Amino acid sequence: MQSASAWLSLTGEAEIVRDPGRVRAMWSEAWRAWFPNGPDDPSIALLHVHPTQGEYWDERGVKGVRFLLRSARALLRRRRADRGVPREHGIVSHL
């Protein structure tokens, strides 16, 4: 998941699921650009992810300004940027 200032990353194992009924239930007409034959297109498959770790970044508002300042400071010092305080970047393991 990604927006302009927030990101979510999941790590784990995934399996391919071929379930036409589920595809039809989840279908959005906007997807027709990639699947012109609609929800019954046999090339559509779903991924079922079994996550083992998740990471979330939230850089909205003041947090975003702090992030930019930390990044600029690291760039000028030719060092790796500080990841910030835990409330701005969370890691959850063994989901």
Q: What do these coordinates show?
A:
- Strands 1-2-3 form a 3-stranded antiparallel beta sheet, with no helix packed on it.
- The protein starts with 5 loop residues before the first strand and ends with a strand.
- It has one domain (6-93).
- The mean pLDDT is 80.
- It is elongated, with a radius of gyration of 19 Å.
- It is built from 2 helices and 3 strands; from the N terminus they run βαβαβ.
- By secondary structure, it is an alpha+beta fold.
Task: Give the arrangement of secondary structure elements.
Blueprint: E1 6-17, H1 20-26, E2 46-58, H2 61-77, E3 89-93
Label this structure with key terms:
95 residues; alpha+beta; 3-stranded antiparallel sheet; 3 strands
- Name the shape in a single word: elongated
Portion of residues within helices: 25-40%
How many E-type strands? Answer: 3
- In what range is the share of β-strand residues? 25-35%
From the alpha carbons, calculate the radius of gyration and give it in angstroms: 19 Å
Q: So what's the oligomer here?
A: single chain
Query: CA-to-CA gap between the ends?
Result: 17 Å
- The computed structural class is alpha+beta
Count of domain modules:
1
In the predicted model, the low-confidence regions spanning at least 5 consecutive residues are: none
Q: What count of helical segments does DSSP give? A: 2
Mean pLDDT: 80
Major sheet: order of its strands? 1-2-3
Order of helices and strands: EHEHE
Largest sheet: 3 strands, antiparallel
